[in-house]
Design brief:
Elements: H1 5-22, H2 32-41, H3 50-64, H4 66-78, H5 86-102, H6 106-122, H7 129-142, H8 146-163, H9 170-178
Helix pairs in contact: 1-2, 1-3, 2-3, 3-4, 5-6, 6-7, 7-8, 7-9, 8-9
Length: 184
């Protein structure tokens, strides 16, 4: 951080991303709380951009508790995408979508996920689509809109199959449960 604050922020964002997706499977010393504490101990100068806000907010949530991170996360999501390249947006949209779910901000989750789907399609980054389509389908399920979730779930499965990627069928399980398909 003392030599290149920007690169340090990127490394910490990558580390937080890894811990978020590892969840309880993260090894000792590599949990979200560990990374959050490491971020809080660094001397990275503050930056007004959205990725820096994501980093500050998530680090505060993980190291000090939810309440400590909410203001930074809200500011980061409010400004997300401004003054960013499409490549930067694609890189940080998964964390921005995650932050929106943590804030229980369905509108931000919907807007950010929609932007993510659009960018992934426009740029031909098909490997990103199954996860974001699943996330968007889950949002529709939680909003009581299974008819809107169904085509997203089907597309997520189809893209994963076509690209040889992995698909974790959270939305399919939700659709099966809501449809009364107990065996599934």
């Amino acid at each position: 951080a003392e030599f290149d604050a920007g690169q340090a922020r990127v490394a910490y964002l990558d580390a937080i991303s890894a811990t978020v997706f590892a969840g309880r499977l993260a090894p000792p010393g590599g949990t979200a709380a560990d990374v959050g504490n490491a971020v809080r101990r660094t001397s990275c100068p503050e930056s007004p951009d959205a990725p820096a806000g994501l980093l500050a907010g998530l680090a505060a949530c993980f190291s000090e508790g939810y309440r400590a991170g909410v203001p930074c996360l809200r500011r980061a999501l409010d400004g997300f995408g401004r003054d960013m390249t499409a490549a930067e947006e694609l890189r940080w949209l998964p964390l921005a979508c995650y932050a929106a779910t943590q804030l229980w901000d369905d509108q931000a989750w919907y807007t950010l996920s929609g932007r993510y789907v659009q960018l992934a399609r426009d740029r031909g980054v098909l490997s990103h689509l199954p996860a974001v389509l699943t996330s968007l389908a889950c949002l529709h399920l939680l909003s009581g809109e299974p008819a809107a979730a169904q085509p997203l779930a089907e597309e997520a499965r189809a893209v994963a199959a076509a690209t040889g990627g992995r698909h974790f069928p959270y939305e399919a399980l939700g659709l099966a449960a809501l449809g009364g398909h107990h065996d599934t």
